[in-house]
Amino acid sequence: MESLKRRLKYYGIGFGLGIIFVLFFFQNRGCAWLPANRVKNAIMDRVIVVSDATQEKLDEKGLSVEDLIQVLNDGDVDFGASDKEDDSKVYVIEKDGVNYAFTLPYESFISEAFIDVKNSKQEPTSEGTGVILHFPADENLIYPDSTRLMTCQQEKLGLISPTKILDLLKESGRIDFSKTKLEERPKPLHYLTFKNEDEEIGAKVIWYKNKLNITTFETEGLEDCVR
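The structure corresponding to this sequence follows.
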């Protein structure tokens, strides 16, 4: 019995030290079960975008994409200042005395980032365009519709491969806020643009089973494609 108690004591000490080690060395997003890290992981699982106006603020402060992502690694989530109740949630994260906000719109694959926010009453951008800063780590993120329309459009544009579409979005992708309808139901509609050689292509996209489901492309020369 004494031997069992001794083993349990050593096990408890080792387990406790392990917990302390994890909390101390992986206090960022390593512990997925912590509430703050669940929020950060949810944001990192989205396509992170910023408006052109926010991008200008980041440039003025000399902040890069990597700096913004670092906010999601070791910034502090201010749950008191965040809006956790509405369908379109907004989380405030503080780092180095600066407050950032990240939106999590209902059924949307984007998270819009803001800087120098006062509280969670931050309305998503509804005009103009913005930059795509981050994509989730999923090489199979793009899922074009299998309709006759999309098949025809892909063939005409030479965009048969979803991987190629993702690569082009990573290279030149932008979001058009004026054509993005986050309030649309049952699924919000997102409007992304990207360059294919010298041609700008628009894409209507919804979030479906954690994939970017492209429902149609918009550019010249696709008039013959029908549903």
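The CA atoms of residues 128 and 177 lie 6 Å apart.
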